[in-house]
Automatic annotation (TrEMBL):
InterPro entries: GHMP_kinase_C_dom, GHMP_kinase_C_sf, GHMP_kinase_N_dom, IspE, Ribosomal_Su5_D2-typ_SF, Ribsml_uS5_D2-typ_fold_subgr. Its main location: plastid. This is 4-(cytidine 5'-diphospho)-2-C-methyl-D-erythritol kinase. The lineage of its organism: Eukaryota, Viridiplantae, Streptophyta, Embryophyta, Tracheophyta. GO terms for cellular component: chloroplast. It comes from Lactuca sativa.
Amino acid sequence: MAAMAASHFFCSHHMNYSSDSISKFSNPLGDGSLRPYFSSHKSKGLSSFQTKCRNSRTHIVKAISDSSKHERKQVELVYNLDEKLNRLADEVDMNAGLSRLSLFSPCKINVFLRITSKRPDGFHDLASLFHVISLGDKIKFSLSPSKSKDRLSTNVPGIPLDERNLIIKALNLYRKKTGSDKFFWVHVDKRVPTGAGLGGGSSNAATALWAANRFSGGVATEKELQEWSGEIGSDVPFFFSKGAAYCTGRGEIVQDIPSPVPFDLPMVLIKPPEACSTAEVYKRFRLDVSSTIEPSTLLEKISKNGISQDVCVNDLEAPAFEVLPSLKRLKQRILAAGRGKYDAVFMSGSGSTIVGVGSPDPPQFIYDEEDYKDVFLSEATFITRGDQQWYTEPSSSNATSHMDKSNCVG
């Protein structure tokens, strides 16, 4: 055997190397050294090798090799098997087809929101700077064996789990547009409160469309997904931007823009338990007493000078404060207590979230007073996404709160 150029291996854990998961080591090099490599092919599921090694981190492989001078040498190779197994698992997902997917579903704020006219169809035309932020839900998608129904679950009560839910609407829409026959099990870990003006439900719908397209191999373009999503709701198309957009029409006309704000600019979101009905807010809106400043002027000022109180105009604040007078008092108190602390304090969307930009910390009275013990609190930052990628949660994102969980639905 010494006369043959051969290598003999054994694992210190006496494990079997499956031929379809890990190739044999390469032949000895001219200097008698060995170079291990892993093949790119991997069968579905865990191999016997993965199963036996999954709880072991560092492994020693001993090798006996004949060098070019026919001298028998024994060497020990020490390597981190976990890293190689993780790499193999990634190759399994790519080669075997997607069966599970976990995605971040971020919400948004309106840095400014101008209502410019009332339309013949009863809706209003708006002009707004939308921006995605780091607060969001986590949604897990799995292929269902069912060929007739999706199944939806969540971590909080009160969420509709049928066709009323925007996620189910989005999956139904995708199948209608593409002819896909895939159905899903979906679990939503809710963090974004409803009735908050943060677009949590719209983001969930956009995320579901993105996921369905991934499971189908990307048969639809991002542009098509964006166009289709307008059938679900006016805010849904925005989430197919890169994260910062100037939105007009009902909100469905989305113009991508470079983010005009720094990503390390902190903010705090403060939302009382009471929600604002969007329909009721618009019902009380009066165009003749709203702001007259041009939206393009606001966008230009923010792009040049950043966020300040005078540019964070929201025409829906006045009617929202009529619907919920306590919300007006909350904003006034935050402004008074946070003098010099925040660059701007304003309401997002149709409410009822008040945003303080410039600091991640709420005013002390939020902690001290019984009236505010159930408010939702979260720090956040601005985020965007890359080409052909969905949004990812920043590692530093920390959504915490004095929080009434019954309020976190939608």
